[in-house]
Amino acid sequence: MNSGLSKLLRKKNRIKLYIIGFVDAEGCFSVSLKKQKDARFGWVLDPIFQVTQHKNSKLVLDVIKDELTCGRIINKPGQKDTLIYLVDNRRQLTEKIIPFFEKHRLVVKEKDFEKFKDIVQGLENKEHQKIDSFKKLVKKAFEMNLKGKQRRYKLEEILEDLEGK
């Protein structure tokens, strides 16, 4: 084990600060929007928390996973040297990830986290089952991560597709 990280781990109060800084730099709170024919409105909101790292630094992802007590580490598709610590289970997001980041505040990713939290809580409260509140959740997802700049679909396309449903 890396001696610097080993010293850090011995001081439990510091590990949380380490995770906050690491997630602020290398983490992502995102809500993907997937077209799905059997979904109520033809679309599904899919919240995901992830941290990406080179395979040589897997120990860092192990530390984060162990501290947060959830999620899994996978190989990033198409990038054999890259690993992802991933939490996409809504129960784990609700019970582990959101409470951790509510208690230990982010700096850089705070606004995305707050929107992410609102969407996950909205899904938990079944807001996605009514068209008006589903649209609000979709709009909030588009406010995250550079205002939806890297999304496959444009907000206008999705809202137009949702009209009349």
Which strands sit side by side, in order, in the main sheet?
A: 1-2-4-3
Contiguous runs where pLDDT drops below 50 for at least 5 residues:
none
The CATH architecture designation is Roll
Tell me, what is the CATH class? Alpha Beta
Number of E-state strands = 4
**CATH superfamily (homologous) name:** Homing endonucleases
Order of helices and strands: HHEEHEEHHHH
Question: What's the N-to-C terminus distance?
Answer: 55 Å
Question: What is the CATH topology descriptor?
Answer: Endonuclease I-creI
How many helices does DSSP assign?
Answer: 7
Helix/strand class = alpha+beta
Rg calc: 17 Å
Bin the strand percentage: 15-25%
Summarize the structure.
The protein has 165 residues and is an alpha+beta fold.
Summarize the structure in words.
With 165 residues, the chain is α+β, with helices and mostly antiparallel strands. 21% of the residues are buried. The mean pLDDT is 91. Strands 1-2-4-3 form a four-stranded antiparallel β-sheet. The protein has helices at residues 3-10, 12-26, 58-68, 90-103, 110-124, 131-142, 155-162; strands at 27-35, 43-54, 72-76, 79-87. The longest helix has 15 residues, at 12-26. The radius of gyration is 17 Å and the shape is elongated. Helix content is 50%, strand content 21%.
